[in-house]
TrEMBL record:
Residues that span the membrane, as ranges: 32-56, 68-86, 122-141, 153-176, 188-209, 247-266, 324-343, 349-372, 401-422, 428-453, 474-498, 504-524
Keyword Cell inner membrane included in the entry's annotation: no
Originating species: Haloplanus rallus
UniProt-recorded name of the protein: Uncharacterized protein
The entry's keywords: Membrane, Transmembrane, Transmembrane helix
Length: 536
């Protein structure tokens, strides 16, 4: 009776959480715009994928002839398991109104509700596109029962991976709570790991394009015959059916058996996480003690009020690196260039390319680290900041100085450091000087864009609340800064190669300087006026 009651309560909690998520997607114009962009992007992909799936259904004769069936059979469970684990660790470890909910129902019901809501979200984002492709394939194959059999195969897999992923994620949260040192190391290592994986993927793609590695060989290594046999159960009752293998039945039984086991493990870990004693009090005391002893700004930050404000931003970012989560955009933008660097062969050209990449990355970081959402970042203490005697220009100077403290060492130091790798000294000095000039311009542009479209909604990421800048602001800043910096790098490189710049090159540089400096100054002045508008 208790299990039946928990299932009923869990179903209601799951429905409420899922509805709340859907309302969150559509609660304002900004989220609707982002949702529309995502639908248009993936919908555009389906425009080409659906006719291809229909043509494939008309031409295929055996299940073995379906392309990419083996790697898909492996990537589906692994991908859903990893996604469920990461989402649990990111934001699903606790329930909405946790204190009230846990005094009303059993923890088992809360776990069931959160898992059901996550299954609904995964079905919404991944199930609908997969269902569209399956329907198109079934129409070409002439098998109207295929969508039903695919659903019968897909749902046990999704339920098992969602439950087990939640169990792994909630267990990971317990481990990180009890081991704060490991948590801090993982925060730093996660970014390095993502960058490394993305660079390796670019190197692998470069090797595939050049023919050094065979795609067929890579796909064969990803295949797991047992999972492929299970996926072929979806073709039962269709012209592609080749019989039911014992291995496929064993996988189905294993998925059905692992789901309640994973649910029991998730409940146990969640109960220990929500109700168990831990060292959060001592950790908070240690943090407070560290704050009293380590906030004093060093030179040169201590010389000016703006410098002390900049040191405060830097110190807070070190303690809560989740504030830099939006910088992962840079990984995807700079990944192809880094992949080309690693996979290239000409040492001198590679060193020069690395110097230019360092300048571009440093200029980007000068504005993107602290400038893309200044009002939103200061939301918790914004009333206090705007009531003190410190003028808005000092607040903005402190924020831009913090960004320059991060970006300038990269923009200037990395080009100079590549001299040892073969970069000509004149090129290294030219790129370093360019970074020294463009970094303040990027910082001024960033604060204006961030003040034009502030984001105040905080979300919990890896145990700390953070306010990420708007995706539109981030994309706009990335396109303008990286595009403009690339143009400047080409112009400076051409000028250094020519020796004596031509009048045309000088004229182009003057026009580009106006296009760089004027928007930056105007953007900074706009941000200062926005701050002043709150104090009038």
């Amino acid at each position: 009776m208790s299990h039946r009651r928990d299932l009923r309560h869990g179903r209601r909690i799951g429905r409420a959480e899922f509805v709340r998520s859907v309302r969150g997607y559509t609660r304002d114009a900004r989220r609707l715009l982002g949702l529309a962009v995502a639908v248009l992007f993936f919908g555009g992909q389906l425009v080409f994928a659906l006719p291809a799936a229909y043509a494939l259904g008309r031409s295929v004769r055996t299940a073995a002839a379906v392309p990419y069936l083996d790697p898909v059979a492996t990537l589906l469970p692994v991908g859903f398991l990893a996604l469920s684990t990461l989402r649990t660790m990111e934001r699903l470890g606790g329930a909405e109104a946790e204190d009230l909910l846990l005094t009303t129902v059993q923890p088992r019901a809360v776990v069931i509700g959160l898992v059901v809501a996550e299954i609904g979200r995964l079905t919404l984002w991944f199930g609908l596109p997969i269902a569209a492709l399956v329907v198109a394939f079934a129409a070409g194959l002439g098998a109207p029962t295929l969508p039903l059999t695919v659903g019968a195969v897909f749902l046990p897999l999704l339920a098992c991976t969602a439950v087990c992923g939640y169990a792994l994620g909630i267990t990971g949260l317990r481990v990180l709570r009890r081991m704060p040192t490991l948590r801090r190391l993982l925060k730093a290592g996660a970014v390095v790991g993502v960058v490394g994986l993305f660079v390796l993927s670019q190197v692998a793609a470069h090797s595939v394009v050049e023919g050094d590695v065979s795609v067929a060989t890579l796909l064969d290594r990803l295949s797991v015959p047992v999972l492929t046999d299970y996926l072929t159960l979806a073709f039962v009752g269709t012209p592609l059916a080749g019989g039911v293998s014992p291995a496929a039945v064993a996988v189905l039984v294993g998925l059905l058996a692992a789901t309640p086991v994973g649910l029991a493990a998730a409940e146990r870990s969640a109960r220990a996480l929500w109700f168990g004693d831990d060292d959060r009090g001592s950790a908070a005391s240690a943090t407070a003690a560290g704050t009293r002893g380590g906030f004093a700004p060093p030179r040169p930050f201590a010389w000016r009020p703006a410098g002390r404000i900049a040191w405060g931003h830097l110190l807070r970012a070190v303690r809560h690196p989740q504030e830099f989560s939006h910088l992962l955009m840079l990984v995807f933008l700079a990944g192809p260039a880094l992949g080309s660097l690693v996979s290239g062969h000409d040492g001198g050209a590679l060193a020069s390319l690395l110097a230019g990449t360092g300048t571009a990355v440093g200029v980007y970081l000068a504005g993107a680290t602290f400038g893309l959402n200044p009002l939103g970042d200061d939301r918790p203490q914004l009333p206090l900041l705007l009531l003190v005697e410190t003028p808005p220009r000092t607040l903005l100077r402190g924020r831009t100085a913090a960004g320059l403290a991060v970006g300038l060492p990269v923009a200037v130091g990395l080009p100079l450091g590549t001299v040892a790798l073969g970069t000509p000294p004149t090129v290294a000095l030219g790129y370093a000087a360019l970074g020294l000039i463009l970094a303040p311009a990027a910082a001024g542009l960033a604060v204006g864009l961030g003040c034009a479209y502030p984001i105040y909604e905080a979300r919990e990421l890896w145990g700390a609340e953070t306010v990420a800048p708007s995706t539109l602001v981030l994309l706009g800043y990335s396109l303008v800064v990286l595009g403009g910096t690339s143009t400047w790098l080409v112009l400076v490189g051409a000028g250094l190669a020519a020796g004596v710049p031509s009048p045309l090159l000088l004229g182009g540089g003057g026009v580009l300087a106006l296009l760089t400096g004027v928007p930056s100054v105007l953007s900074y002045r706009y941000a200062r006026n926005r701050y002043r508008g709150y104090t009038l």
